[in-house]
Amino acid sequence: MQLIPAIDLLGDDAVRLEKGDYERVLFRQPRAEFFSRVLATHPALIHVVDLEGARVGALRHDVIAHCVALAHGVPLQVSGGIRSLDAARSVLATGVRRVILGTALWEAPDALDQFVEGLGERLVAALDVRDGQLVVRGWLAGTGLGIDEALDRCVRAGVTRVHVTAVSRDGTMSGPDLDLYARVCASGLKVVAAGGVRDDADLDALARVGCEGAVMGVGLLARLGLEA
Predict the structure, then answer these.
(1) Which residues participate in catalysis according to the annotation?
(2) DSSP letter for each residue of 92-136
(3) pLDDT attached to residue 113
(4) Is 228 part of any domain?
(5) Which contiguous run of DSSP H or E holds residue 149?
(6) With 80 as the cut, is the pLDDT of residue 141 above it?
């Protein structure tokens, strides 16, 4: 089980939101300072989300390039507003290891196949789930897709890894939705879990249902001696 610290970006700062609500900022710290704190934990991978990019549909490449520099060689997985294959490739060209895409995969019938063909294992498909349904555009819009249909599409397209967020638990410190993750892991895909992950006990529970990794946001703050 790989613990992946999350760094969410809004403006020039690292932040944590509650349930993805841009009006409910639980924590804010200058980007470089927060990176330094995270690097002190010696992570093998860092999860970076450009929240502004997710909201407006255009990831800020200059910000991501700065994050790559701040990471000092620690690999990044990046998401937030990556809406085209060219945009994904340009993000990877900055030195990012893999990209997480959600909205772009689900808004056209053949998009998922095209992104898998173009990016291979450097693509991670985002399944952001609220009440059993996929949401997109920074969790602000529905898709009409249920989780089972989305998983079936991922398997048929050749996706290797999915990033699954239980939206209602994000930023709540209420524990992960183990039923959701067990359901997703049964697909045979590699699964990274997010939403409500608090501590080592949660990581152990996620490992037991089959997840390969978990992203920790608010729970990470406590590990760093910070308060939300």
Answers:
(1) 8, 128
(2) HHTT-SEEEESHHHHSSTTHHHHHHHHHGGGEEEEEEEETTEEEE
(3) 96
(4) no
(5) helix 147-157
(6) no
